[in-house]
Amino acid sequence: MTNQHLSVEQRFHLEAAFREIDGCDNIEQLRSLTKQIITAQENEKAFAREAIVQIRKEMEAAAQHRFGFNWGQS
What we know:
Helices cover 76% and strands 0% of the residues. The protein has helices at residues 8-22, 27-67. The termini are far apart.
């Protein structure tokens, strides 16, 4: 179930989370843990999305400066 593109550290954290889930016999604790995992995943996606937007802006600004492009301006 693991992705081979994950780092060793990421695989370690994933395995630790799987063990915690597997060892949980309290439904309320399991619900809480699941919500934490989903929230963390969504935060990671939001961070990546914002990083991509920022990198794109920086690349466009660098290209505009280097080549004299005027993107988005009429």
